[in-house]
Amino acid sequence: MSNEKLGFVGVGRMGGPMVERLLAAGHEVIIFDANESAIDALVEKGAERAASSEAVASAVEIVMTSLPMPQILEQVALGDAGISSGTKVKIMLDLSTTGPGVAKRVSEALAEKDITWIDCPVSGGVAGAVAGTLALMLSGPKAVCERVEPLVSNFGKSFFVGEDAGMAQVAKLGNNLLAASALVVSSEVMAMAVKAGLDPDVMIDIINVSSGRNSAIQDKFPRAVLTGTFDFGFATGLSYKDVRLCIDEAEAMGVPMVAGAAVRQMLAITNAKFGPESDFTCIAKVVEEWAGVEIRSVKK
Predict the structure, then answer these.
(1) 172 annotated active-site
(2) Which of 43, 65, 249, 265 has the most other CB atoms within 10 Å of its CB?
(3) Are 148 and 123 in contact (CB under 8 A)?
(4) Domains, the chain, ordered by start
(5) What value does the mean pLDDT take over residues 200-211?
(6) Of residues 45, 113, 157, 172, which has the active-site annotation?
(7) What is the rounded CA–CA span in Å between residue 170 and residue 300?
């Protein structure tokens, strides 16, 4: 598949690095994005520009998408000059986080045009996209997932989770709720420790060899909170979107998410206070303000 021509719609912070990896693997890639500057940067690296999502889908059999919001994904897939209007596309592989409801609706609409939908949400952030170390969750017809697996292997490690549309979205939303939950509770614990006079670096070391170890303490706090940079690389607005989707889907299934609802509220506050473009580690800033402390490294 090294010379296969592929399409990619949505070449921003996540999609751009993934296009670069496809180009590096020897694929021709035709791209479209509403942001012209994002396209320009990739054209300079060998990608081909398209005038619309429909034009991409009229040039290749496999179109990948990486888009920030479910409503944008739905418009790109099914709207005017969208992927469903393309004349050549056979597979739409979505790398976005949309939630299972949107995935099912889009899958059903595409099926009417003989286009197979594959869910492939990713975890690992921009750094993982650049390094090719993402975790990719695949759901859709197994034979088609096997067909695209060598392509997505350029981005990281894939996990087939089932054949029904939206199953991979459930896996992704659950993971992202856990990530946000770890950040919220860790922020509270670290604020308490600092207010009691503990060295935050020592507290981090203790937790990392104890039963409270989690992704926020292992990575996010050392990189983006103790440094005061708050630049881990995942937007508050996107985390808030993912958690809202997770809670809504769980409640629709009859699964209570009491703790998850509290995490959603913390993200709502962070989003309102610092804006959707802020880094989601700003959750810690909210707790700092309430506690009257700053959780910063004292190392020289």
Answers:
(1) yes
(2) 65
(3) no
(4) 5-165 (3.40.50.720), 170-291 (1.10.1040.10)
(5) 98
(6) 172
(7) 43
